[in-house]
Design a protein that fits this description.
The protein is built from 16 helices and 28 strands. The strands form 7 sheets. The protein has a 9-stranded mixed β-sheet with strand order 4-5-6-14-7-13-12-11-10, with helices on both faces. Helix 2 runs antiparallel to helix 8 and helix 6 crosses helix 7. The longest helix has 19 residues. Helices cover 31% and strands 21% of the residues. Its EC number is 3.1.3.48. Pfam families: Y_phosphatase. It is an enzyme of class 3 (hydrolase).
């Protein structure tokens, strides 16, 4: 297989080194020699430690300098892109105003006997440190360009594709699906290539696929393995709500495709400029931070726009980059590998110069960065919903609250519960308070409507003389209780150590007409209101939950305690961290808690004795997990 192309053919004319015909080369040279093209003067790189303060001044100062900067970028003259608008190339452009420049466009190899087949809407992008062609920024393929897309992957030996859009968003096609529909299926692409869907590993915010790309036109069939990382947490409009999830995605990419890799990293969204430019710019600056300890957003974005038009397409994306880098500086490097886990946990227990332990400092950082993500609780605070909240300050935010099917009464869709991501599944959990007498029917409606297979209860009915939960299940085996249209029957009860397992059968409407919905209620009885149970109790609960989820088809799980945040948040953190440790060999307490708090504010309460005990004994969870069958 040949390496990245230097020469190609455009309209039967031989390309020069930068891949444009001679007359276009002259246009480009004239453009870059024109001093009027330098509209934005460089500012000095910002030292990393000063960047958060710099962003506050630029973003919130009276002069709105970030807005001015981005506006000025739009005034830069653009190099010519005449090849893209040639009649035989127009069908290969998704949009009629997003084209690659002549000088930096990807040139495919000429195909004997086929005229004008070298064009694709994609650009070669230089990376950090002057590295040539570190990236390919491309539009999402259209129907007629799928064959050229895979030809580009083959000719440039691109081992990694990053996809930043869904195929369809808000009812509009953003990118054709250019890989087989089902795992292990194959897709013939043109006359030369075949793509086989080899493997798929889903995560909460991206999917990691592997494809086998075969070139059938060679005398001996050759193939290459292509990693396909599909980031799915970018909304139809706007930017991701958690920039650190995108940064974590980039870090994962760089473990698979190191900066030192000789082949380019292929990045595409729909147009290949907005989301694509945002990710590439973040990746470049993360390398700058690591190497130089400085940040130069404007400098690098100007460089990107000299290579592909409209890279980082919106003011919102430009601010997102600044805020994300600022948050990265504040949070620091919090990911810890398995080999260093014991030492890291020991250091987190130590007190620093100002008297706080590392865990306490991390919780302070979480509070600080969370304050930049304002949330609203308007639904929870409605007059007709207030008596459904056990505590007035433990509420679901409007964005991620669970919404029940609406009934005739105001507030009939409300329950104090929130969707929270798992390690490998978006919205895998519902975090909620234990039911009140007046919310039991709503609780079972939620379990039924969202087809939950397991409910984990982390408290007892009475704790320290007060109610933590009403009894929301039938007390005798074989007994049924009716809640509205739902009938709940207790099938069996088993106790093993600190864990009580109740198997319940739920039927909606007439039993003879509807199939029963089986629910497994796992109650840990040894978790005190303040503090933690023995680590082995939590690990045994996780072990039992994991095996039960597998039997239930990995349906959504409800996690609850008296307030729906303290014990619930701690359990979710430990569960997700152990799962990540098993899969990736790393943990990250800070980012896990911060991400969960975006979905349900207050998860893991650092003011309680529970957090202080977790701080004192975290290592026990990560030494005992090997005793369990699922690890």
């Amino acid at each position: 297989m040949e390496g990245p192309l230097v020469n190609a053919v455009v309209d039967d004319e031989t390309c020069e080194e930068d891949g444009v015909p001679n007359q276009m080369q002259e246009e480009t040279e004239d453009y870059f020699q024109d001093p009027t093209s330098i509209l934005l003067t460089d500012i000095d790189p910002i030292p990393t430690e000063r960047f958060p303060e710099y962003v506050r001044d630029m973003l919130y100062g009276e002069e709105h300098k970030l807005k001015e900067e981005f506006s000025a970028l739009g005034k830069l003259p653009q190099p010519p892109s005449t090849v893209a608008v040639l009649p035989h190339n127009k069908a290969h452009n998704r949009f009629n105003n997003i084209y690659p420049y002549n000088r930096s466009r990807v040139c495919l190899k000429a195909t004997p006997g086929v005229d004008s087949c070298d064009y694709i809407n994609a650009s070669l992008i230089d990376g950090y440190g002057g590295r040539k062609n570190a990236y390919i920024a491309a539009q999402g393929p259209v129907d007629v360009s799928v064959e050229r897309f895979w030809r580009m992957v083959w000719e440039y030996e691109t081992p990694t594709i990053l996809m930043l859009t869904q195929c369809t968003e808000a009812g509009k096609v953003k990118c054709v699906q250019y890989w087989p529909e089902k795992l292990h299926d194959s897709l013939s692409v043109g006359e030369k290539f075949r793509v086989t869907f080899s493997s798929n590993m889903p995560f909460a915010e991206y999917e990691f696929r592997k494809f086998k790309l075969e070139n059938l036109s060679e005398s001996e069939s050759k193939h290459m393995t292509v990693s396909h990382l599909h980031y799915t947490a970018w909304p139809d409009h706007g930017v991701p709500d958690n920039v650190m999830s995108l940064i974590a995605f980039i870090r994962h990419v760089r473990k698979l495709h190191p900066v030192s890799h000789q082949q380019p990293l292929l990045v595409h969204c729909s147009a290949g400029v907005g989301r694509t430019g945002t990710l590439i710019l973040l990746d470049i600056i993360m390398q700058q931070m690591k190497t130089e300890g400085t940040i130069s957003v404007l400098h690098w974005l100007r460089n990107l726009r000299m290579q592909r038009m409209k890279m980082v397409q919106s003011q919102q994306q430009y601010e997102f980059i600044h805020c994300g880098l600022s948050e990265l500086v504040v949070c620091g490097e919090t990911e810890v590998g398995a080999a260093n886990l014991r030492i890291a946990l020991k250091n987190l227990k130590k007190k620093g110069p100002v008297g706080f332990t590392g865990f306490q400092r991390q919780m302070q950082i979480i509070e600080e960065v969370s304050s930049h993500h304002p949330v609203t609780f308007s639904d929870a605070e409605e007059e007709y919903n207030r008596n459904k909240n056990r505590f007035p300050d433990k509420l679901p935010n409007d964005t991620y609250r669970v919404r029940l099917r609406c009934g005739p009464m105001p507030g009939s869709d409300y329950i104090n519960a929130s969707f929270v991501n798992g390690y490998k599944q978006k919205g895998a959990y519902i975090a909620t308070q234990c039911p009140l007498e007046n919310t039991v029917a709503d609780f079972w409606r939620m379990v039924n409507e969202f087809q939950c297979g397991c409910v984990v209860m982390l408290c007892q009915l009475q704790e320290e003389g007060e109610e933590s939960s009403c009894c929301f299940w039938p007390e005798e085996e074989g007994e049924s209780v009716v809640h509205g249209k739902l009938s709940v029957k207790l099938v069996s009860v088993k106790t093993h150590g600190d864990i009580v397992t109740r198997k319940l059968e739920m039927v909606e409407g007439a039993a003879r007409l509807n199939r029963p919905h089986m629910v497994h209620l796992l109650q840990l009885t040894s978790w005190p209101l303040q503090g933690l149970p023995h680590p082995m109790a939590i690990l045994s609960l996780i072990d039992q939950l994991t095996s039960t989820q597998m039997r239930c088809g990995n349906r959504r799980t409800v996690i609850m305690c008296s307030d729906g945040v303290s014990r619930t948040g701690t359990f979710l953190t430990i569960h997700c961290q152990l799962e990540r440790l098993k899969t990736e060999g790393v943990v990250d307490f800070l980012q896990t808690i911060k991400s969960a708090r975006l979905h349900r504010p207050g998860l893991v309460n650092n003011t309680t004795a529970e957090f202080r005990r977790f701080e004192s004994h975290p290592g026990q969870f990560f030494s005992l997990e090997k005793e369990l069958s699922w690890v």
